[in-house]
Write a structure and sequence with these properties.
InterPro entries: I/U_nuclsd_hydro_CS, Inosine/uridine_hydrolase_dom, IUN_hydrolase, Ribo_hydro-like. The chain has 314 residues and is an alpha/beta fold. The chain has 14 helices and eleven strands. Bound molecules: beta-D-ribofuranose and calcium ion.
Length: 314
C-alpha cells in the first residue's frame, strides 16, 4: 500500500477521500494534517478523527495546522458542507484526540524519516504546505509525489467565475506551491475533473444509501447539504466529489485518462483572486505542474463503492 500524508480541511468530501485512503487497501496513511478551509481548523480536525474512526482506524495521528490563510481572512464553505462541515447530521464527538505536533512540523519531518517514500495528498487550501515550503524550499523533492486537489484547469470556478475554493481561499499559499513545483513531482486534480467525470448522480446516491454498510451510510449522510446545495443553488441533479477524485488518482494513477504538463501561476489580485494562469504560449516557461484533465468515471466509482463495502478491521 502507498504510504501517505494527507492534508485536509475535513468537510464532507474530504471525509470520503479519507475513507478511500484508509479502507481501500491501496493506502497506508502515516499521518493526517489539518488546516482551516471548509470549516475552522478545530472543526476539520474533529471531522478527520470521526472519519478515520468510521474506517476503523483510531491509530492514525491527526495533526492540527494553520488556523487561517497566509494573508487573507478565513472564508469557510459551511453554507455548502454544513455548519459542522459534515452535513449537520449530529455526528457524535470522536473518541480519539488529535496529536500535539503541529501539521507544518509533521509535513517537514515525515519525509526525513522516509526519504522519497511518502506521497503527499492535499485536499485543502495550501496554507500548511506553503508554510512548510518557506522553511524547506526543497520539500517537494523529499516526497515521492505530491497530488493536490486544487484549481480548475478549464477555468471553470466554483467560488468565483474563474477560481476554485482551495486556491481561492489562500491564493498566496497556492502561488508558493506553484513556484516550488516541478511536473515530475506535483500533480493537480482540479474541480472541473470531478464535475466532468465524477458526479454522484441520483442513482449513485441511492445506491450508496441502500448499501447499508457503516461507511456507505456515513458517506451518504454527511453529503446531504452538498447534495441540497448542488440541486437548489446550481440546479444540478448530482453533487461532485473533488477530494475523493484526487485521492483516487493518487492511489490508482491509471485512473487518469487525460493529462497535460503546463506552466501555472496563480492570480493574487482581487478581481481574479485564485485564478489559475495557465501559460500555453509557444514561448511559455517550462511546465511546473502536471494537470489531470479527465479520469475514468467507471473505475473511480468502482473504487468508491468497493471501499465503502469493505469489512472494517477488527
Ligand atoms: C474543494 O473545496 C472544498 O469545498 C472541498 O472539500 C474541496 O477540497 C473543492 O473546490
Ligand atoms: Ca477539502
Amino acid at each position: 500500500a502507498l504510504p501517505l500524508i494527507i492534508d485536509t480541511d475535513t468537510g464532507s468530501d474530504d471525509a470520503v477521500a479519507l475513507l478511500l485512503a484508509a479502507a481501500s487497501g491501496l493506502g497506508d496513511i502515516r499521518a493526517v494534517t489539518t488546516v482551516a478551509g471548509n470549516v475552522p481548523v478545530e472543526t476539520g480536525t474533529r471531522n478527520a478523527l470521526i472519519s478515520l474512526e468510521t474506517a476503523g482506524r483510531t491509530d492514525i495521528p491527526v495533526h492540527p495546522g494553520c488556523a487561517r490563510p497566509m494573508t487573507r481572512t478565513l472564508s469557510t464553505a459551511q453554507h455548502v458542507h454544513g455548519e459542522d462541515g459534515m452535513g449537520d447530521i449530529g455526528l457524535p464527538d470522536p473518541a480519539t484526540t488529535c496529536h500535539h505536533t503541529h501539521a507544518v512540523e509533521t509535513l517537514l519531518s515525515s519525509p526525513h524519516r522516509h526519504p522519497g517514500e511518502l506521497t503527499l495528498v492535499t485536499l485543502a487550501p495550501l496554507t500548511n504546505i506553503a508554510a512548510a515550503l518557506l522553511r524547506d524550499p526543497d520539500l517537494f523533492t523529499r516526497y515521492r509525489h505530491v497530488y493536490c486537489m486544487a484549481g480548475a484547469a478549464d477555468l471553470r470556478g466554483n467560488v468565483s467565475p474563474t477560481a476554485e475554493f482551495n486556491v481561492w481561499a489562500d491564493p498566496e499559499a497556492a502561488r508558493i506551491v506553484t513556484q516550488a513545483a516541478t511536473p515530475e513531482k506535483v500533480t493537480w486534480i482540479g474541480w472541473d475533473v470531478s464535475r466532468k467525470d465524477a458526479v454522484m448522480t441520483p442513482t449513485d446516491q441511492q445506491r450508496l444509501e441502500q448499501l447499508g454498510t457503516p461507511m456507505a451510510t456515513f458517506a451518504h449522510r454527511i453529503n446531504r447539504t452538498v447534495a441540497d446545495w448542488a440541486r437548489d443553488v446550481t440546479g444540478l441533479a448530482g453533487y461532485d466529489l473533488p477530494d475523493p477524485v484526487a485521492m483516487a488518482v493518487a492511489l490508482k494513477p491509471d485512473l487518469i485518462t487525460e493529462q497535460e504538463q503546463a506552466h501555472v501561476d496563480i492570480s493574487v489580485t482581487d478581481d481574479t483572486r485564485g485564478q489559475m494562469i495557465i501559460d500555453r504560449r509557444l514561448s511559455a516557461p517550462a511546465p511546473n505542474i502536471t494537470l489531470v484533465r479527465r479520469v475514468d468515471e467507471t473505475g473511480f466509482k468502482k473504487l468508491l463503492f468497493d471501499t465503502v463495502t469493505t469489512p472494517l478491521p477488527g
